[in-house]
Amino acid sequence: MDTGDTAWLLTSSALVLLMTPGLAFFYGGMVRSKSVLNMMMMSLGAIGVVGVLWVLVGYSAAFGTDVGAGLLGKPFEFFGLDGLLGKDALTGTIPTTVFVAFQAMFAIITVALISGAVADRARFGPWLLFAGLWSLVVYFPVAHWVFDFDGKDAAGNVVDPGGWIANELSAIDFAGGTAVHINAGAAGLALAIVLGRRVGWPKDRMKPHNLPLVVLGAGLLWFGWFGFNAGSAVGANTTAGVTFVNTLVATSAAMLAWLAVERVRDGNATTLGAASGIVAGLVAITPACSAVTPLGAIAVGAITGALCALAVSLKYRFGFDDSLDVVGVHLVGGLSGTVLIGFFASDTAPAAVNGLFYGGGVDQLWRQAVGAVAVLGYSFVLSLVLGYLVKFTVGFRADEEAEIAGIDEAEHAETAYEFGGGLSGSRGNTKPNVAAGASAVLEGSTKS
Amino acid sequence: MKLVTAIIKPFTLDDVKTSLEQLGVLGMTVSEVQGYGRQKGHTEVYRGAEYAVDFLPKLRVEVLIDDAAVDKVLDAIVEAARTGKIGDGKVWVTPVEAVVRVRTGERGSDAL
C-alpha cells in the first residue's frame, strides 16, 4: 500500500461526489423556477439509490471476477463489500475499499447526468426506480467492460480477466468518455423519447431561470472533475499530473470555442454558453486526458466545444425534447473525445499510443470507434426498454396540470422561491393554521 | 376626478415622473407589467433557436388628478414618454367616483 496514492484517491473520491450536487446546481439553474427542486432532487436521488446499490452488488458486477467474455463481473462476489475490509485487500497500491468508494462516485454521477433529458416532467418515484434498474442493467456491466483491467501475476499472465473494451479491444477510455458520457447521453436520448415533449415545447421560450446557479454548478463540476480525471490515475503520480493539466487546458479551449460559435451564429456570447462549453470540454477530455499532450488537449477541447455548441440545435430538427442538452453535450462530447483519441493520441503522453496525426495509422481509431458505438447502442436500446417498462407499469410522467403548475409543488410539496412572503405575517393573524385545521376536524367529528 | 393610466417604456419613467412633479401631481403608483399592442412582440435567438417573445416588459403608471388637470397631464406624459418608435405605449383616462385618504378620512379632491 502507498499512503500518498491512498490519500490522493480518498481526496479524489470526495471531489467526484461533489460533482453530483454540482450537477444539481448546473441543471437546477437551467430549468424554469417551478421545477428547480425536482431537478435537483433527481441528482440527490441518484446519490441515494446508486450509493446503496454500488455497495450491495454494483462493485462486484463491475469489478468482480469475470463471468465470461468480459461482459460482467460476478454480482454477488463481494456482496456488501464482504471480504474487502482486511489489510490484504488492495487494488494496485491502495486499499480496495478506497477504489470502491472512488468508483461509486462515477456510477452516481452517470445516473444523475441522464436526468437533464427529462427536466420539468418526470415524477420522482419512477425516476428512482429507473435509476436503480438502469444502474443494474446498464451502468454496472458497461463499467466492467471499460474500467475493469485484467489482473496479472508477476510473470504477466492474466489471472483475473476483466472487461472486453479495456482488454480485448484495447480502446482508450481513461476516465469514462464511453462508460459515463456516451452511456448517459444515449440513455438521455432514450428517456426524452419515452417521456415525450414538455407542454409548450418547442414553441415556448424555456430560458434558464437562474444562470448564477448554472455557473456555480459548472464551477463545482470542473473542481470535482480534477478528481474524476486525475484520480483515475489511481495514484499520486506522473499520469495524475498530465491528466490534471489536460483537464484544465482542454476545458478552457472548449469554453472559448463554444462562445465563438455563439457569437458568430446568434450574435451574443452567453453565460449559459460558457457554462455549457466548460462541461463539453470536461466531457471530451475525460477519455483522452492520458493519451494526448497539452497541445492535443487544446485541439480536443476546441473541436468538441464547437461541435457541441452546434449539436444542441439538433433536438429542434429531430423534435426530441432533451431539455438540458444531455445528448448535445454528453453524447456528442463523449463521442468526440473518445474518437479524437484516434487522431490526437501521442506516445509521449502516459497512454503511450500514437494516433493518426502522430504516425500511428488508423489502428487506435477503429478501436475507439468500436468502443464508442458498442456503448452507445447497448445503452440506448436497454434504456428505451427500461424507460418503457417504468412508463407502462407505474407511469413515468407527471400529469399535464401538475407540469403546468410546476412539478416542484406536485411532487415535493415545496417551491424553491417563496416570493409570496410579503403577504404573510400581517396584523391580527395570531392563530396557527394547524390549530385552526385541527379544530375544524374535531368539530366535524363531533357532528357525525 | 380622473384616473390616468399610462403604459410606457421602462426607461422613460424618470422623465415622466419629473414632468408630472413639475405640474404639481403629488403621487403616483408604478407597476411592472407585460403586454403587446399593434406592433406585437419580437423574435429572439438564444442557444441556436429562434423564439417569439409575445409579451414585452412595460411600466404602468397610475395617477389620480382633478378633472381640470387632465389635458395638461396627458400632454406631459405623452411628451415625456415618446421616442417616436413603435412600442411607446398608450395613455387613457377613466372617471373616478370617490377617493379617500386612509390616514385622515378626507374625501374627494382634498384626498388627492
What does this structure look like?
Chain A: Belongs to the ammonia transporter channel (TC 1.A.11.2) family. Chain A: The chain crosses the membrane at residues 6-27, 39-62, 94-115, 127-147, 179-199, 211-228, 240-261, 268-288, 294-314, 326-345, 365-390. The complex is a heterodimer of chains A (448) and B (112). By secondary structure, chain A is mainly α. Chain A contains 16 helices and four strands. Chain A has a two-stranded antiparallel ribbon with strand order 1-2. Chain A has a two-stranded antiparallel ribbon with strand order 3-4. The longest helix of chain A has 31 residues, at 363-393. The mean pLDDT of chain A is 94. Chain B has one domain: Alpha-Beta Plaits. In chain B, 20% of the residues lie in helices and 37% in strands. Chain B has two helices and six strands. Chain B has a four-stranded antiparallel beta sheet, covered by helices on one side. In chain B, strands 3-4 form a two-stranded antiparallel ribbon. Chain B is elongated, with a radius of gyration of 17 Å. The model of chain B has no long low-confidence stretch (mean pLDDT 93). At the A-B interface, loops of A face strand 3 and strand 4 of B.
